[in-house]
Write a structure and sequence with these properties.
The protein has 295 residues and is an all-beta fold. Helices cover 0% and strands 53% of the residues. It has a single domain, classed as 6 Propeller (Neuraminidase), CATH 2.120.10.
Length: 295
Amino acid sequence: MTDVKIVVPAANWCGEGPLWSAKDQALYWTDINRFLLQRYDPASGSVRHWVFDEPVCATGLTDTPGVLVLALGSRLILWNEATDERTDFATPETNLPASRLNDGRPSPFGDFWVGSMQNNVDENGQGQPVSDPHLGTLYRVRSDGGVTVQDRELGISNTLCWSPDGTIFYFGDTLQNTIFAWDYDVTSGEISNKRPFFVGFERGRPDGSAIDSEGYLWNARYDGSCIVRVAPDGSVDRVIDMPVRNLTSCTFGGPDLKILYVTSAAQPGELRAGSVFSIDVDVAGQPENVFSLKG
């Protein structure tokens, strides 16, 4: 189960936002620093990419066929793959350009949740240090474009996942080395009762995550060379060693959702860094949530 394969030797600067489309049987992901959206077709092995004018940070399915929601650094857009049409949708982050959007995902309720952080990418895609651990905000974006703030004073927003029954929401702050849990109301989409869930794990820091069908959270550890599977009670179930240092996010894909796709970021001296990896796992993931544009 821990046989790690390179499926796309992408050499991404910062691969992120992996998204499995069951309809297309394809993997979408981004390269934040090179302003790219990418698509991998496992059946043919083909890879496509689309270039944007700013960081592409997160991705999500919508209920409109062929249309994805994308979190760019400055705003949310709707993107039509067939035509490459790009339509501005919402601007949750008000502290531009000091901050930018980062990780995001649709919720079980059909909203799009996205967090922000201090902007660490310049206009040429070069990385900059993050010096302020309090500039990030967590947003909930509704189908009509309305935005509400859910949490403030965050460092680097990462990990947006929901338990299989939709009653728990997980959200991480990389700088705090903490993934939090909230109670989630599936009838209203509201959260409450924030508490620490997975704190202080010694290998790297928490980046993106995915939840499997048993309710275990698979967390990519940036600067930690591993993926950690965390039980619903917050204990470590297993650790999967990876061949690169900076793992950025993961998602379940394949016809039976038993392939864990993992994105990564560049690291000097690591030839495989920036690749997309796959791991055959023994438990299925969950289908992706969908952002409801139709209300």
